[in-house]
Amino acid sequence: MLRWCCLFALLANAIMLLWYSSQVSTSATRVEENIGSTGTLRLVSEINPKSLVWLKPRESELSSCVEFAGFKTIVNAKAVQQLVVEEGFEAEVLAEDKVIQHNYRIALVLPDGLEDRLDTLDYLEQQEGIELQEQALGFEYELMRFKSKKDAELKLSELQVVGISSQVRYDEEQQQRFIVRVFESIDRKLSNKIKEVVLGSYSLEKNEKKVCERVASLKATE
Length: 222
Fold this sequence. Notes:
Blueprint: H1 2-37, E1 52-55, E2 62-71, H2 74-86, E3 90-109, H3 114-127, E4 140-146, H4 149-161, E5 166-183, H5 192-201, E6 206-213, E7 217-220
Antiparallel strand pairs: 1-7, 2-5, 2-6, 3-4, 3-5
């Protein structure tokens, strides 16, 4: 009887050993598969720059920002970007093509009526220092001494008051302008002092606060 008990005990131990060995082998295989699926770790310097792609920010990455728009050169825009970065803010420089109006002038046409025509010639001579000889009907003259559209429109109003028909004209040219976008955080806002420094140093078209997407990040495709 004792012999049979020993045999059953040995058989049970053998079965347990076989079961345990199979479990260890399965676990090891799974670990190897998981390790193989993680890919290869590389340093940033080892990544081919051509394999990098931009990742668009998620909606959760929207934040308030301040935009300084109207820099005429990228050098000035980069200088402001560096200024705010040194203050601990994220910032980016954007380029935009804009149609710029310049060379403002006022065009006036000598009236057909004799009396109105003489009044216009008299006004030009006395108020503008322009002496015109009698010209053919439809003769057009341009006043060209206005630095801005506002100055030209003020003169236009003056001419209309005295009954001289005229209009503002200008030339258009497509030029590149630059924007500096500064990202703010919930607990950190761009100070008025920094804004005053920027606005006092450069002649800008606008400065506004808005909601922006944060700067996109890079991901390697290789």
